[in-house]
Amino acid sequence: MKKGDARRQQILETAERLFYQNGYENTSVQAILDEMHLSKGGFYHHFESKMALLEEICVRKAEEAYEEMEQVMYDGSLSAIDKLNALLGRSGLLDQDNIDFLALMLDVAYREGGVVLRERMKQASLDRALTYMNAILAQGLVEQSFFTQHQEHIGKLLLMLGFNLTDEIAAAMASDGAAQPVIGRVVGLLDTYRSAIETLLCAPYGSITLYSVRYIVDMYCRLKGLSAPPDFRLEE
After folding, report:
1. Spacing of C-alpha 107 from chain mean position
2. DSSP 8-state secondary structure symbol assigned to residue 26
3. Rounded alpha-carbon distances, angstroms, from residue 92 to 45, 114, 150, 191, 234
4. 155/158 Cα distance (integer angstroms)
5. Which residue of 47, 115, 130, 209 is surrounded by the most CB atoms within 10 Å?
6. pLDDT band at 2, cuts 50/70/90?
7. Which residues, at least 6 apart from 164, have a Cβ–Cβ distance to it below 8 Å?
């Protein structure tokens, strides 16, 4: 790694840690400089603003979310439906292993004025995800688990549905509403999007999983600092 690349990586890692620790708004560029004993010139050589820095962190998270898909794609034992579920459930945002990143994004990207950051994350992963999606659709058509006359365009449509579902879930989690109505809304969204994707692909009923309800409940409770019992009840 070149010296300049190493410095850029150090800035990213330091900023990410401070964002998690203190919040985005409470972390100034000067705080990052002080932590690294870095000059302003050293910072602005790599990033034009604090938001540009955050955007790169988001882009890297989006890219990392798809790295494991390489192994999934080359696994000959997996059906197209297995691979499609793996791809649609691959979101750097809705990752229980990085709840700090989710909290940061809910505070910045899913509040007023965060649309540009959200779109930046989507664009960062779209090309790579679309390559995987098209290969999965081709396999599914051969296996006759999917049926569509619009193979050329439907892959992007499915990905946009997946991105929009992530946005809907994140927006619900970012709200200040009571827990059960929020989770109830998310459950309804999951059911709607599952049904829509199955319909578009003429896939078997119940074959699309997206995220499990338990996964979302656990993530939400961790995010909000709640203790959810195993029989956490959902509003209809």
Report:
1. 15
2. T
3. 28, 17, 28, 21, 26
4. 5
5. 47
6. low
7. none
User: What is the C-alpha separation between 71 and 73, in angstroms, rounded?
Assistant: 5
Q: Which of 34, 37, 40 is nearest to 22 (CA)?
A: 34
What pTM does this model have?
A: 0.86
In the structure encoding, which two tokens stand for residue 219, read together? 């993530």
Say which residues have a Cβ less than 8 Å from residue 191's Cβ, sequence separation at least 6.
Answer: none
CA distances (Å), 201 to each of 26, 83, 208, in order?
A: 46, 14, 10
Residue bearing tokens 């309804």: 188
Nearest C-alpha neighbor of 128 from the set 185, 41, 68: 68
Q: Which tokens sit at 176?
A: 């200040």
Q: Residue 1 pLDDT more than 60?
A: no
Instruction: Give every CB contact of residue 189 below 8 A, 6+ residues apart in sequence.
Output: 165, 168, 169, 172
Which 3 state secondary structure label does DSSP give 104?
A: helix
The tens digit of pLDDT for each residue in 174-228 reads: 988 888 889 899 999 999 999 999 999 999 999 999 888 888 888 898 888 887 6
